[in-house]
Design brief:
Shape: globular
Structural class: alpha+beta
Number of strands: 7
Helix content: 40-55%
Largest sheet: 3 strands, mixed
């Protein structure tokens, strides 16, 4: 199954592939440290890595025209990546939500469509406001990272910290699944690696 779902890398750019692999590993460790050890500080790493991998853009000018260039790592190694679609948008009124955000029984969709899916709905003064995946990732990365940037959320929209943390892990796990990476298997390997390093350090003392 892991091999079947794996993204096909069509570029020979070894540096881009290395950066992508490093970003995925950092994301994987961060999710694991939050999930198993409750180290909430790593949520900012999760948000930042998701933006770097899936939503990184750069504004520039070409012949005096403002152009937005997609610099997402996933696009640098695969010009047409596809990911599993959202099941249903999360409602703000839902007290309990899960990390199971994506429908793995459906065909994966192109990155542009995936980023523009509605992940969260909130009722602001009787009006339903919708938040896209790309806006959620960028806004959360900016907010947690302390960046002062204009909000991309609809007017007065706000997502609770509890929902935000669960959604970050859910998106990360959806990404792992989409690229054919077995998170549970790698988390087990990473935990073993950490324990081995701790044992070596203890013996060294």
């Amino acid at each position: 199954m892991e091999r079947k779902n794996r993204l096909v890398f069509t570029r020979s750019n070894a540096a881009a592939k290395r950066k992508f692999d490093e970003a995925i590993t950092i994301l994987e460790y961060s999710v694991m440290l939050v999930e198993f050890f409750g180290l909430e500080e790593f949520n900012n790493i999760i948000a930042g890595q998701l933006r770097l991998i899936l939503c990184e853009t750069k504004n520039t000018r070409i012949k005096r025209e403002k152009v937005t260039i997609d610099q997402s790592l996933i696009k640098k190694i695969n010009p047409n990546p596809k990911l599993y679609p959202i099941k249903d948008p999360i409602q703000m009124s839902n007290v309990h939500i899960t990390e199971d955000l994506f429908d793995y029984t459906k065909q994966r969709i192109e990155l542009k469509l995936w980023r523009n899916q509605i992940i969260y709905k909130t009722d602001i003064e009787g009006e339903i406001q919708e938040i896209k995946i790309i806006d959620f990732i960028k806004e959360t990365a900016n907010k947690i990272g302390g960046t002062q940037a204009e909000s991309s959320f609809p007017n007065k929209s706000n997502i609770s910290d509890g929902h935000t943390k669960i959604m970050l892990r859910g998106i990360a796990k959806g990404l792992f699944k989409s690229i054919g990476r077995d998170y549970k298997k790698h988390a087990s390997m990473n935990l073993s690696h950490i324990m081995q390093k701790i044992e070596q350090s203890t013996l060294g003392d």
